[in-house]
Design goal:
Structural class: alpha/beta
CATH topology of the largest domain: Rossmann fold
Largest sheet: 7 strands, mixed
Order of helices and strands: HHEHEHHEEHEHEEEEHEE
Radius of gyration: 19 Å
Distance between the termini: 28 Å
Number of domains: 2
CATH superfamily of the largest domain: Vaccinia Virus protein VP39
CATH architecture of the largest domain: 3-Layer(aba) Sandwich
Number of helices: 8
Helix content: 25-40%
Number of strands: 11
Shape: globular
Length: 264
């Protein structure tokens, strides 16, 4: 098992504003509907700054969040301080690694939204994370997660090129615009890992006033790879989708989304 834990300090700093500006991000209603339908309690592995967690707690469902990044959890705790008492009372937060987190509590729903499983970089770590999820399921409970559908023509292309990914206005100064770029630095085809650099540039009008960078590594999965991991983790598929609108998981899919239960 790898000992690496990524702090994601810069990602935590800009996460909420960046993804609030992402109009294509459609996962929150999907996970919120699941939480409501199961009734909770919910465990979120890789909860980050609470983008999904808070929407579930505000909907009246108890949820526990786990993340290994202290900067991400610091942002979440500051946001929780601003919530009403009844929302805060539904939430517990743990700084822990999803590969070895263990709680005595069992959950009707375990979720791993927005691809934390793609920060598990080898089979041992991937299996450990899935076993953590399976360990915490109640009888009849569900595990739901998403990873991106691998488009190999894109994965193999553009090493070394900078791409503008998103931009948003600084919430503390509307005269400033922050743009996030990414640069693909390398692609390990054997281990199915990509190394990237996120570059955050702040502009005041036409003047670049700040530039910050943070490295990131992501793994990707093929469908048979995931099915083998499910078998090893004692899980079986109840539903699978190719989008958050529940399109088929086929060659036209944008995502690979799974609802799993413990294998009989």
């Amino acid at each position: 098992m790898s000992d690496a834990v990524e702090s994601r300090t810069l990602s935590a700093k800009y996460y909420d504003e960046a993804y609030a500006a992402d109009e294509e991000l459609a996962d929150a209603p999907f996970y919120l509907d699941l939480a409501r339908s199961t009734g909770g309690p919910v465990l979120e592995l890789g909860c980050g700054t609470g983008r999904i967690l808070l929407s579930i707690a505000r909907a009246g469902v108890a949820i526990d969040g786990v993340d290994s990044s202290r900067p991400m959890l610091d942002r979440l705790r500051r946001k929780l301080d601003l919530e009403a008492d009844h929302v805060r009372g539904r939430v517990s937060v743990f700084e822990s690694d999803m590969r070895n987190f263990r709680s005595p509590r069992k959950y009707a729903l375990v979720i791993i939204p927005f691809r934390p499983l793609q920060h598990m970089y080898n089979v041992e770590d991937q299996l450990a994370a899935l076993r953590t999820a399976a360990f915490h399921l109640q009888d009849g409970g569900l595990l739901a997660f998403d990873v991106y559908y691998p488009r190999f023509e894109k994965i193999n292309a553009g090493v070394g090129q900078e791409v503008l990914e998103m931009e948003w206005r600084d919430p503390t100064d509307s005269g400033k615009v922050i743009r996030r770029y990414y640069r693909k630095d390398s692609h390990d085809k054997i281990h199915q890992n990509i190394r990237l650099t996120f570059i955050f540039r702040t502009w005041q009008g036409d003047e670049l006033i700040r530039e910050e960078a943070e490295g990131l590594q992501m793994s990707y999965y093929t469908y048979p790879h995931l099915r083998a991991l499910f078998m090893l983790a004692g899980l079986e598929v109840r539903e699978e989708h190719g989008s958050f609108s529940k399109a088929p998981l086929d060659n036209n899919a944008d995502e690979m989304i799974f609802l799993l239960k413990k294998a009989a």
